[in-house]
Amino acid sequence: MKRAQVLVLPSLWEDPGFVLVEAGYNNCLVVSSNCPNGPLEIISKDGGYLFQSNSKNSLIKSINSFLHDSIENKISKKIILKKRLRKFTSFYHASKLRNNILT
User: Fold this and answer.
1) Is the pLDDT of residue 30 over 90?
2) Boundaries of every domain in the chain
3) What's the CA gap between 5 and 54, in Å, rounded?
4) CA distances (Å), origin 49, targets 6, 44, 52, 101
5) Which CATH superfamily, name and number, covers 6-102?
6) What are phi and psi of 30, to 5 degrees?
7) Which residues contact 38 (CB under 8 A, 6 or more apart)?
8) For residue 22, is pLDDT > 80?
9) Of 27, 34, 21, 33, nearest to 88 (Cα)?
10) The pLDDT value given to residue 98
């Protein structure tokens, strides 16, 4: 992933989307199906490229969006994804758990 330009994830189900998290931490852009539990919560509409599951036309449109997007938009998507991934670290979950237990 460190050398890839993009991860294309045509998954029907992500639980909870660890591949997306790993891609983001490796500065890899993501083109993903909008399947349950993962892509929308992690990359949303501004941190990558979503397409509708089981839709060839939607997949092609998302890949074309990636291919024709400006460098600035791609960098912006990487930054947005990286910031959003802070909520998916073990440190974040441990601190939330600790706060819930202590309160």
Assistant:
1) yes
2) 6-102
3) 23
4) 10, 8, 10, 37
5) Glycogen Phosphorylase B; (3.40.50.2000)
6) -125, 130
7) 11, 14, 15, 16, 17, 20, 32
8) yes
9) 21
10) 84
Collapse the DSSP code of 49 into the 3-class scheme (helix H, G, I; strand E, B; otherwise coil) and give the result.
Answer: strand
Residue 64 CB neighbour total at 10 angstroms: 11
Q: What is the mean pLDDT of residues 60-84?
A: 96
Strands 29-33 and 49-51: parallel
For residue 60 the two structure tokens come to 């092609």
For residue 78, give the H/E element and its range: helix 71-84
- Please check the confidence at residue 16 and state whether its pLDDT lies above 70: no
Per the DSSP assignment, residues forming a β-bridge with 51 are: 33
Measured in whole angstroms, the distance separating CA 10 from the mean position of its chain's CA atoms is 12
Q: Which residue type occupies 56?
A: K
